Amino acid sequence: GAVVSQHPSRVICKSGTSVKIECRSLDFQATTMFWYRQFPKQSLMLMATSNEGSKATYEQGVEKDKFLINHASLTLSTLTVTSAHPEDSSFYICSARDPRQGKETQYFGPGTRLLVL
Amino acid sequence: LAKTTQPISMDSYEGQEVNITCSHNNIATNDYITWYQQFPSQGPRFIIQGYKTKVTNEVASLFIPADRKSSTLSLPRVSLSDTAVYYCLVGPYNFNKFYFGSGTKLNVKP
Fold this sequence. Notes:
The complex is a heterodimer.
Chain A: E1 4-7, E2 10-13, E3 19-25, E4 32-38, E5 45-51, E6 57-58, E7 67-73, E8 76-81, E9 90-97, E10 106-108, E11 112-116
Parallel strand pairs in A: 2-11
Antiparallel strand pairs in A: 1-3, 3-8, 4-5, 4-9, 5-6, 7-8, 9-10, 9-11
Chain B: E1 9-13, E2 18-23, E3 31-38, E4 45-50, E5 53-56, E6 61-64, E7 70-75, E8 84-92, E9 104-109
Parallel strand pairs in B: 1-9
Antiparallel strand pairs in B: 2-7, 3-4, 3-8, 5-6, 6-7, 8-9
């Protein structure tokens, strides 16, 4: 099936620094990708929709200036956590729909574990 | 998107059949039902999707009654490796945004 990758798989950073997470669709083009956040023992929470060539759409309560999303190509979306703080420590997951698969729904990346010290 | 309700957790033993039910009372006419599996520290993995009656693939079956207000994911002969959280999602055929519910944590015991 279709594959979505994320890089890095885990990152540790100091408070106040910015961290960039990449999401790539490896064998298909995705005009839309999605970013989720998951805290320990909780469900996934949709943060934003990443649109190729246009601005991202953020869910209510998600700070767009803190979580910068860039979808510069049909296979790459990046999420930058700006001025990260310990409360931003979480598991970040992206997803994308393979348009070739019909109703085969979405494919999720393996996730990126962020730890802010 | 239709809200879903699932049991928070379930226990089973290896070799047993496990049925996880999801309630979606306000499902719309054009909504499909999709199930995902998630292991710790991994992204969710697609299991099965259906609209009505019964769908079966190599890993699971999905049973949907005529009123479509609920659905049941059936995992035949589970093994320890099936221990995971299972999410039920409901939305239109081409829906992209997934609003995850709490999911069901399945614990398979030896």
